[in-house]
Amino acid sequence: MLNFTRAAGLCLAIALGATSASAEDWIGCDQSQSYNQQGPWFSQLAPGVSWDAWRILLNRPWSDAERSQPVWFDADRAVAEAAQAPLDTPYPGEFWIWPRVSYVPALPATADQREAYAAAVNLYTLKLWPAATDAFDAIASGPSPYAAAAAYSAARSTFYSSDFTDGFRRIERLVADPARRDMRQAAYHLVGTLANQTGASPLIAARLADIAHLLMVPSELRCRDIELRTLADQASGDLYHIIQIAFPTSHYWSIVQWSEHARGVFLRLAATDPTIDLIRVLAAPTPFMRGSWVDPFFPGLYQYPGVGLNEQAIVAASDPDSAAVTAHARERAMATGNPLWTYALARRTADVADLALIHTARATVARSGIAENDRTNLDANLSSQEARILLMAGRLDLAIAATGSVKGASGLYVPAIDRNGIGDEGARYLLARRDLTSARIWANATMPRFSEDLVLSPMASRLAITWHELLKPGLGRPPAESVPSDAEASALDLLPAARLIELSRTKGLAAGWRRPLLSAGWLRLYMLHRDADFIALFPEIRSAYPELITDLDEIDRAWLTSTKRRLIAHMLLRLPGLSPRVLWARSYRGYGDPNSGSLTAIDVYNDSDGNWWCAIDPDRAVRDTFSQMFAEVLSQDLYVQKGSVLPIDTYRPFPSDAVASFEHIARDWVFWHPLFHDADLSELELLSKVESGPRRLTKEAIDWARHSWWITRFFGLDRDLPETLALAVRATRYGCRRQGPLGDVSEAAWQALHRMFPDTVWAQRTPWWFNEGAP
């Protein structure tokens, strides 16, 4: 953020008075301190290529005068750059002015000194800028312990009165004054802080110019000067922040109303500063998202604004200057031969004619004097774009060959690219065009180069064409390391019970896969009243769920069918975590709750899907499969959750017919895929008509109570009935709410419990009945 906080390293530098050191200090400098990387991976304009490489390739060395400066702020440069971006609109940040910050001086102040400072602060608070400036100047020129704070506040007040030149001069004087040491860091940050708070073009211009200079700091200076190193690192972070304002890719940024200011500053400064020009082109939205690897346009969804499109692609597609930016990048790449400019072009183009420039740039990189990591990473960036261009041109064989050059550095520094992503992104591109054959060829050829285990790729399940291929991640793995992903689980949910049970028997399948497949099929048999098949699976359930052995043995020992039925209801009421959908099965992963894998724990966050069951909606199951298998990986603007699939469209109305269209798109995609050609929704249709888990199980408990007599209780046949009634009431509180209110059965179970067993612990634990659920 531009509104900086005090960094511990810089405070140490200030305390020690660090400004420069002898050249010998460079010898023992730690590599991580000297290496001037771009910043976090998500903010890197040329991934994995350090600012040191930028300085060399752009020929931007620091002069002897710049190296020998006593301070690291140049007022002349700030004044010159600010003049290129005049304040030609009303001050945009008027409402963002933060008028007062408490300051506690290091030395005690007299009453008169405190009164004078308070009077100056009052003028500042009233936004009487000239008067406040004069009052602060009077304090700063005297022996007051508030002198440093007053000098800083005077500079700030000067900026608010739009006297930018005087403000820059004041900063330079303040950071150079040893007596103002305690405000030195704040003074260095002032231009960036006010640019962030106000969006004023001159301040953004001055900060950008300062950033462009600091990013090119020579390694030996960076290494031996703690203060300079800190300022350079903060400059890299500030650049990312300004880019997000100038070229917003999301409405998340609350200050995008300043985008026009920041974008205009980039354009003005780019005309005279080659570094800012290159930054501006690399920062501009590219037509190709995901690190310029594939375009994210999702067939069938693009007709609705904001649905199925990545925001960056939307901006690039709707930006009338997008083609001009690409043309400018091409012109600069041809004119300069600079590989950074060629990369700026490469990430914006799909024209095979530009491959010649990429080949030339790669040869230039190999001969350049930049560090080995930088050479490797820049070459990887260029070759990955070459592979993308060839893939988009339909040259699958050449594209695969080009990926062989994508290596990228690793180790201490951020790798040039997510190398696993190359295989994934190419597969996404081909799958989005329903070219599954080419996607599989691409994945098999490229992913082994970048991943130790192909099955760990998020694309693997989307490329599977048989169910046994889909199960591959679960084969031969310890249970805690392998559970179905949401995509795999939602796909399996379209299968009938018998097929789920059959797949659970796959040899070598991890317990994390076997359990949810088996239990989903088993519970569906119960929901469909296939009692004989349900009981026949007890041996397999014992093996997969040893925690149920006691319940199953008790059911097996029962003589009467009615007793078995009641004991089954008792067991299931104790197991809210059993689900007929693999997508909602309790597993080793969850909400961070230690009980997330427990079958007996209540899911307090998700009544309808997390506890027992609701009738299965076939349309929703298809939507879930579409959203998890396809929409989530092929589109970035769908809000995908297990419970709902909605567009992220906060700022634009979602068309009323979009839901129906989405339903059509979901079915079209799911049943196009070969994996689902043998899918049969007839069983899901039957499961859509069943009673919810709480209603059916509570009715079983009520029926048990109605048939309970003194003799059955005498022989212990009804010893579990009080608990069953209490659990039934609990189920009506925490179970399915989508299928209507449950007050009738809840009240009946509660009355039976308190009438028949009023003195039991179960009656004491159940003081209420519940009428939850939608009417």
Tell me the major beta sheet: 2 strands, antiparallel
Radius of gyration: 34 Å
Large-scale geometry: flat
Write down how many β-strands occur, each being a DSSP E stretch of 2 or more residues.
Answer: 2
The percentage helix is 55-70%
Secondary structure class reads mainly alpha
Average pLDDT confidence is: 79
Percentage of residues in strands: under 5%
Please state how the strands of the largest beta sheet are arranged side by side.
1-2
Low-confidence stretches: 1-28, 92-99, 294-311, 410-418, 588-595, 636-657
Number of helices: 42
Distance between the termini: 49 Å
Plain-language structure description:
This protein is mainly α. 57% of the residues lie in helices and 1% in strands. It contains 42 helices and two strands. Strands 1-2 form a two-stranded antiparallel ribbon. A hairpin with a 4-residue loop joins strand 1 (638-640) and strand 2 (645-647). Helix 11 (201-214) packs across helix 14 (259-270), helix 21 (372-392) runs antiparallel to helix 22 and helix 40 (721-734) packs antiparallel against helix 41. The radius of gyration is 34 Å and the shape is flat. Mean pLDDT is 79; it is low at 1-28, 92-99, 294-311, 410-418, 588-595 and 636-657.
